[in-house]
Specification:
Blueprint: H1 12-27, E1 33-37, E2 51-57, H2 66-70, E3 76-77, E4 89-94, E5 119-127, H3 131-145, H4 147-161, H5 168-174, H6 176-185
Parallel strand pairs: 2-5
Antiparallel strand pairs: 1-2, 3-4, 4-5
Pfam families: GrpB
Protein name: GrpB family protein
Organism: Metabacillus lacus
Length: about 190
């Protein structure tokens, strides 16, 4: 699998706002905070044209209520990742014309890759103000304010996008040491862990 990056688009924040309104309308009041994260949230940064969204629950027990609210509306619940990251619920929203191709729930037994070109949105639901929440906002905000690190991250992404990957998680893992370095430079506190 190749990762296809696009030049930064001024439309990505507007796409986020529309998706945020849709998610809010489907989940109120369980998700009091919804943020645009990932490369599409950083102006000037090349990215896969998939909007990454992080939503925060006030209570950890609310995590298990979210899938039933989103699945009837086209979100594929990636339940297979719950063991790896039990504090997160992950969803992929395919583009409308592809939604009928994918199950509501993907488990170990029925999992298969959703091609990036079919994806509109990735939604990560975690507890608000958790370490995962804070780290993602810290990384986004740091790249927004530090053009030299944003350029270095983009260069890394371009180099990695030229390789073949078995799946997107391998590509993401290849960026992890750079991301960790930025978080250290940004002054991440130990409680963010």
């Amino acid at each position: 699998m190749k990762v296809k990056l696009q030049e930064s688009s001024k439309e990505w924040p507007a796409h986020f706002q529309l998706l945020k309104q849709e998610i809010e309308s489907l989940t109120e009041p369980l998700l009091p905070a919804i943020e645009h994260i990932g490369s599409t949230s950083v102006p000037g940064l090349k990215a896969k044209p998939i909007i990454d969204i992080m939503a925060g629950t006030a209570e950890e027990q609310h995590l298990n209520l979210i899938p039933k609210l989103l699945m009837p509306h086209g979100f594929s619940y990636m339940e297979l990742y719950n063991n790896e990251l039990p504090f997160r619920r992950f969803f992929i929203l395919p583009r409308k014309k592809f939604r009928s191709l994918y199950p509501e729930i993907m488990t170990e037994s029925n999992a298969f890759a959703i091609p990036h070109k079919h994806r509109l949105c990735h939604l990560h639901v975690v507890r608000y103000n958790s370490g995962w929440w804070k780290n993602h906002l810290l990384f986004r905000n740091y790249l927004r304010m530090h053009p030299e690190d944003r350029a270095a991250y983009e260069q890394l992404k371009v180099e990695l996008s030229a390789r073949d990957w078995r799946h997107g998680n391998e590509y993401a893992a290849a960026k992890s040491s750079f991301i960790e370095g930025v978080l250290v430079k940004a002054g991440r506190g130990k409680e963010y862990g």
